[in-house]
Each structure stands twice: as structure tokens, then as C-alpha cells.
Amino acid sequence: MKFVDEASIYVRAGKGGNGCLSFWREKFVAKGGPDGGDGGNGGSVVLVADEALNTLIDFRFTKKYIAESGETGLGRDMTGSKGPDLEIKVPVGTTIIDEDTGETLGDLVRDGQKLKVAQGGHHGLGNTRFKSSTNRAPRQTTKGTIGEERTLKLEMKVLADVGLLGLPNAGKSTFIRAVSSAKPKVADYPFTTLVPNLGVVKVKKHQSFVIADIPGIIEGASEGAGLGIRFLKHLVRNRILLHIVDLAPWDEITPAEAAVIAVNELHQFSPALALRDRWLVLNKIDMVPAEELEERCQSVIDALGWEGKAYRISAISGEGTEVLCLDLMTALEEQRELLAESEEAREKEKAVRTLIDEEGRNRIMSLREKRRKAGQLLDDDDFDEDDYDVEVEYVS
């Protein structure tokens, strides 16, 4: 299955059925009265979150969705049938935006959650509705109204509690393999990870969290270099970011320089996202000579001006990962309790996510516009069905 996290579609609700002009005609009844029924309402367009989906690939090929119209009213006061609502399944974690106004219509974050994006037209009235003591044979009816239509932009963001941030080959995929049953591809060349990978980390019985690995970012990512800029938006929903730094980089860049590059690109993409709760993880301690380890770790801490705890791990051997996951679980539980108890905290969290969404979306749109003016296209604009032939799945 191909991984596609953005798509544009056109939706149109059904038209309401017209009212009927009819009079009762029956043998032996000299003067039958009006009996024209109302039309049926048009069907609405509704998006439904489905956890069985993990990509928007279907919307690359089917872009128009039109609900059925209501039927015209009938004689004998019979109402026309209502047009059935058109339900469109989208992945959990999909944000829906009106392309014409830029308004965010909703965010589908729970399986089965529904959002009406186009209201069906209202039914027309039959002539029965207009009879009165002074108008016993009305010939007046009304037509059904047209349904709403919109051009929508769908943005899917993977749902995870913890997101991994770092340069290519920092060991993010290896870390996911070490702490969960997810098996993303690992290799000794940059951009091994092409799409987000998700894993479920089980800390204790009935205690777990979801962790997401996105393609690494490089210097200049905010200007379109590499793959990371396309996937940074998937960190929007993460409550904690793990900044993984490679202490034994494969190229000439130093660990301190690599750490600063990642943070700078994060700030360029979204200042609000850069202010998210971020933990520092120093990886590959097993590949650094013992006499150099402290110096390399301190150089990263000094370069970032880091004041919090810095975790030292070896993802490939698992050293230090258990303590890190236990601390993550504790912090996430505390955040969940706070959000459950405090309305103010929930509103603040919602406002922060909205701001990050807007900043990230504006950054990507400005980059696309810049590339188009230069006669270039981003990879996702020049879509090929053979691209990104990777499945994204939760593995526990």
C-alpha cells in the first residue's frame, strides 16, 4: 500500500426534491382537494474515521464525491424519499480543511468519529402545504434547494504519543526496533526511512504508548532539501519529542553540529512545535571510545544549551532504553491525568496544536509556491503510484 498523507477532493451534497403539484381525483368524489407531497431532503456528505485505513491513497484517484438527491414529492400526500447520506471513510488522524476559505472544518482522531462536510439540500413543499380556508385549490409549490459543495484538503497525521526527531542515520528506526515489535528497515545509508513508522511500546501490563519515527531531516530541510520537511507535520500530535543525536556520525559532521541542525530546522518549520516538550537522547554510546564519550556528550549539551536530563543509550544493544521508556510512560501518564482533570489544560493543548498545524501548513505551502515559481515540483506534487511503497502500521 502506498503512503499518501495529503489529498484534495471535491464533495457535493444532494439536491432537495421538489414539491409536488397534485389534486385528489377519485370516482364519485366531485371536488378533490390538493394532495401534493413534499420532496425528500438531499443526502449529506459525511467523513468517517476508520482505524483500518492508514493512507489517503484512494483519494489520489477518486477526487469527486457526490451524494444522491432527494426524490420529488408524489400525489396522495406522499413525501419523496430522502437521499442517503454519502459516508466517506478516512484514516484516523485526518484533518479536514476547506481549500477555498482555509477554514479547518474538523479533526477526526477517534475511530468511528464523523464529520458532516456538506449539508444536503432542503426539500421543496407540495401544494398541500399551501391550502387554507381562502385558498382551497393552491397551485403553489416550492423547489428543493441545492446541496452544499466544497473543495476539501485532507491532511493525515499519524497518531502517536512520542515522536522521534533527528538527522538521517541517527538510530531512530533502530530505537523503534529495540523498544517495540515494529521492524522498520535499517541500513547504513541516509534516508533509509521514507515514511513514518509506528510502534507500540509496552512498558508494563496495561501500560503502553505509541512512538513514531519520521524520515530524518537535514540542513536546509525547511527549504526543501531531503524528505523531512514533508513529514515534520506528523509530530504535531506528539506530546513528547525525542531528539536522538548520533554520537558516532557516519559523515564528517560532529554530534554537536548535527544536534543544532535538527533544532534549527524544527524552529524554521514551526516555532510552536520547537517549544514542545523535548527530551535529549544521545545514541550509539557503544560505538564511542570510553575516553571520548564524556567529551562528545558534553559537546552536544553545550551546543544546545541543554539544561534537562540527557539520556545515554545504545539502541542496537538496548542499553539505557528501558529506563528511558519507563520515564516516558510516567511523563505521559501525568500529562493524561492533567488533560483529563483540567479544562484549561485541554484548551491550551488544542490551541497549541492548532497553531502548530497553521505554522507547518503555511511553511509547506510557501515552499511549494517557491518551488513552482522556480519550475520545480515537490515529490508529492509529482505523484507516482510506485512511490512510497511502504505500509504504515501499528505493531504491538
TrEMBL record:
Stretch list, region Disordered: 120-143
Protein name: GTPase Obg
Annotated Obg domain residues: 1-159
Keyword terms: Cytoplasm, GTP-binding, Hydrolase, Magnesium, Metal-binding, Nucleotide-binding
Subunit structure: Monomer.
Binding positions for GTP per the UniProt entry: 166-173, 191-195, 213-216, 283-286, 314-316
Domain OBG-type G: 160-333
CDD domains associated with the record: Obg
Record's compositionally biased regions (Polar residues): 129-143
Protein role: An essential GTPase which binds GTP, GDP and possibly (p)ppGpp with moderate affinity, with high nucleotide exchange rates and a fairly low GTP hydrolysis rate. Plays a role in control of the cell cycle, stress response, ribosome biogenesis and in those bacteria that undergo differentiation, in morphogenesis control.
Enzyme class: hydrolase
Pfam families found in the cross-reference section: GTP1_OBG (PF01018), MMR_HSR1 (PF01926)
Keyword Hydrolase tagged: yes
Single annotated GO MF: GTPase activity
